[in-house]
Specification:
homodimer, alpha+beta, D-amino Acid Aminotransferase, Chain A, domain 2, 9-stranded mixed sheet, 19 strands, 30% strand, globular, binds pyridoxal-5'-phosphate, Aminotrans_IV_CS (chains A, B), B_amino_transII (chains A, B), pyridoxal phosphate (chains A, B)
Chain lengths: 356, 356
């Protein structure tokens, strides 16, 4: 295992975008972290270099067989100019879980967090300051062997790139509209649903495109076997408040375990609320709605933190929740979680790590 | 749509491997075909260039969301030194079907076949001559937009690379052993199973790895819903001969429609055999075996053409077929099909196209 990180600083600095004009994932900082894997050396040549193109032969496995994994987390700048990371160790655990499923060698999570901190520190000036902005961190692994056989690659490249991102909610937190998908399937038990791998996202594009033509911003996936049980939204886990109980689908092997989901479960329990992780059918949600018991629904993920859901489109019917307004729990979770991330709320769970 | 193909020949020629030492997919010829897609220009800048690395920013979508498709076909050299392609229009149709599922713009199949022929003609000296060898042709499309949002890429690159490949059967056609997978799932109805996209192969690696540790060369996938019905093998479709009837699983949306599968169905019908495409459970195969009615089993695909199956491992039991020997139909199909491909057998179905 490599422990030394070689640093080459960029001679030129790119112009930084205005805080107010930030989009998601279009602009990248001056540096990146890279390390390589080979069967004899393991992970080696850890280095921070200027952000620059990757050059690979067209036969490189990454262009053919989708054996990729990735993560997504954020660095936040506090009012007193500290830089905070939120539970990065959870992302590293999940990355190794994805690695396991995709036959990619395990990484040393502690070492990668150290590398990530050094990288963020070097590009600290890129972290935007405006309300709701942050630095999105994208660790990813690609197979680099030059070979067209269908087999795990023998060589890999691990990289971390950084992108300053704007507020998810330009005009404050507000509810989204979700299409309940009844034709396409994202993942199935025994597949790769619990891993963060490219193929899961590639397979979701078509449904997403069709939903957005109908005016829905994301799709809600149902299970691949019976198309009955709720799984998750495009890039968020999902929660419902039904008659006082907060419910989220249990981890069944085909949904991703969100770091936000995990944090919210802890917060809700801490607040003494009734929470359950269990099988939940769309029909149950629909019946609750009919009986006036569907109180709130929200998605959870690193990008939006909490995304209140104002409407579902399900079997040719519109299900409106809380009159299309942000619910009480959604709001409280959003304020508390973003407060912890931004250092304005007490970090009672010890979730935050400072980048020095 | 682009119609002109720009040609830049390589100044140096790489050394060609010995015919007898060819592996699959490790060595590539001197040239490649490339064209790019942008929303304003469509597919443009079609060109044949020296085989060389691709340079992409680390934020290029191909490294993150697996929105890739590919094809696989072969060029064969005949005894009188002609170069033949086998049903390339079927590969182009399938590529467009994959494109459709993956939200990638359609290509003009006729134009690509024309480009492919020019490329193969330029690198004609690379086509090996020994028995069973050929030139493997790999068309593929990658998303090239620099963006981390989960959405279809706006820019793409289409490429064709060529690799001289050895005989699949070094010591003549012989049966393989297959593990019937009962835990992992490759694809499910509503997913991407019928498309030739990276994610399908990435998700298969783990099962493949575990099967090969147990001494089985490939896995047989069952349907993702009930894990009961037979789908296909790693990179082959599958056929059984049961009590005189030749059966292959029907196209149900989760299996790939092989060009070889399609050709074999046509040949068998032409020979007047009883053939059906239908739902087929592993239990039915097992019962046929118990009753002594399981006469043959074989996989079909571009790589091996016909791969007779000598043994299945199913629910802790070994199912031996035809005493582990190549069956009569398997042998006849193999000889006829490779004969048509190599120009030694009459091309009664008009499947072969010459590269001039
Ligand atoms: C499919 C999917 N589900 C859920 C999530 C939420 O996970 P997290 O809370 O760790 O961002 C994400 C986003 O990362 C995702 O891509
Ligand atoms: C999953 C899968 N099924 C079947 C096949 C067989 O298709 P073809 O006969 O066109 O090679 C292949 C190989 O290309 C494949 O990858």
């Amino acid at each position: 295992m490599t422990t030394k990180i070689d640093i080459t600083l960029s001679e030129t600095k790119k112009e930084k975008p205005e805080s107010g004009q930030l989009e998601f994932g279009r602009v990248f900082t001056d540096h990146m972290f890279v390390m390589d894997y080979s069967p004899t050396k393991g992970w080696h040549d850890a280095r921070i270099t200027p952000y620059e193109p990757i050059s690979l032969n067209p036969s490189s496995m990454v262009f053919h067989y989708g054996q990729t994994v990735f993560e997504g987390l954020k660095a936040y700048r506090t009012e007193d100019d500290k830089v905070l990371l939120f539970r990065p160790e959870k992302n590293m655990q999940r990355l190794n879980l994805s690695n396991e499923r995709l036959c990619i060698p395990q990484i040393d999570g502690d070492f990668v967090i150290e590398a990530l901190k050094q990288l963020v520190a070097i590009d600290k000036d890129w972290i935007p300051t405006a309300e709701g902005t942050s630095l999105y961190i994208r660790p990813f692994i690609i197979p680099t062997e030059y070979y067209l056989g269908v087999a795990p690659s023998k060589f890999y490249r691990f990289m971390i790139i950084l992108s300053p991102v704007g507020s998810y909610y330009k005009e404050g937190i507000h509810p989204v509209k979700i299409f309940v998908e009844n034709q396409y399937v994202r993942a199935v038990a025994g597949g790769t649903g619990k891993a963060k791998t490219g193929g899961n996202y590639a397979s979701s594009l078509k449904a997403q495109e069709e939903a957005s033509k109908k005016g829905y911003s994301q799709v809600l996936w149902l299970d691949g076997v019976e198309k009955k049980y709720i799984e998750e939204v495009g890039s968020m886990n999902i929660f419902f408040k039904i008659n006082g109980e907060v419910v989220t689908p249990e981890l069944n092997g085909s949904i991703l375990e969100g770091v936000t989901r995990n944090s919210i479960l802890k917060m809700l329990s801490h607040w003494g609320m009734v929470v359950s992780e269990r099988k939940l059918s769309m029909e149950e949600v629909y019946q609750a709605y009919k009986q006036g018991l569907l109180e709130e629904a929200f998605g959870t993920g690193t990008a939006a933190v909490i995304s209140p859901i104002g409407e579902f489109y399900y079997n040719d019917e519109k299900i409106t929740i809380n009159d299309g307004e942000t619910g009480e729990i959604s709001k409280k979770l959003y304020d508390t979680l973003t407060g912890i991330q931004k250092g304005t709320h007490e970090d009672i769970f010890n979730w935050v790590t400072e980048v020095k």
